[in-house]
Design brief:
Elements: H1 3-32, H2 37-52, H3 58-62, E1 78-83, E2 88-93, E3 99-103
Antiparallel strand pairs: 1-2, 2-3
Helix pairs in contact: 1-2
Bound molecules: zinc ion.
C-alpha cells in the first residue's frame, strides 16, 4: 500500500471521527439544553482533529458562538433573525446574546 493511500484512509477516518464527535456534542446539548463541559470536550477534540488533519469543514465553526463557545442550535438555545432587504441572516446566541451574521444573497 502506498503512503498516499494510507494518508487518505487516515484522513477519512479522522473526518468520520470528527463528524461523530460533533454529533455527540449536539446530542449532549439537546439533552441538557446547554453546552456543558462534556459537550465542550467533544467539540474541543473535534476541533483538534480538524486542525491536525487539516480537514475542511466550515460547518463546525459556523455552529459555534464566537464569544462563549456555545453550540448554536436554533429553536433550542439560539434564535435566527433574517433581514430580507439586507440579505443577511443572524443567529443570536441564547446564552451570551452574540450575533453571528451570514449573507445568503
Ligand atoms: Zn454565545
Amino acid at each position: 500500500m502506498s503512503m498516499i493511500k494510507n494518508d487518505k484512509l487516515l484522513s477519512e477516518m479522522a473526518r468520520a471521527r470528527m463528524i461523530r464527535l460533533v454529533e455527540l456534542a449536539k446530542i449532549r446539548v439537546e439533552k441538557t439544553g446547554d453546552t456543558d463541559l462534556i459537550a465542550r470536550r467533544y467539540i474541543n477534540i473535534a476541533k483538534s482533529i480538524k486542525s491536525h488533519y487539516e480537514i475542511k469543514e466550515p460547518s463546525l465553526n459556523r455552529m459555534l458562538c464566537k464569544k462563549c463557545g456555545s453550540m448554536l442550535m436554533p429553536g433550542l438555545n439560539a434564535r435566527v433573525r433574517v433581514s430580507s432587504h439586507n440579505g443577511y441572516m443572524a443567529i443570536v446566541c441564547g446564552k451570551c446574546g452574540a450575533e453571528k451574521h451570514s449573507f445568503y444573497k
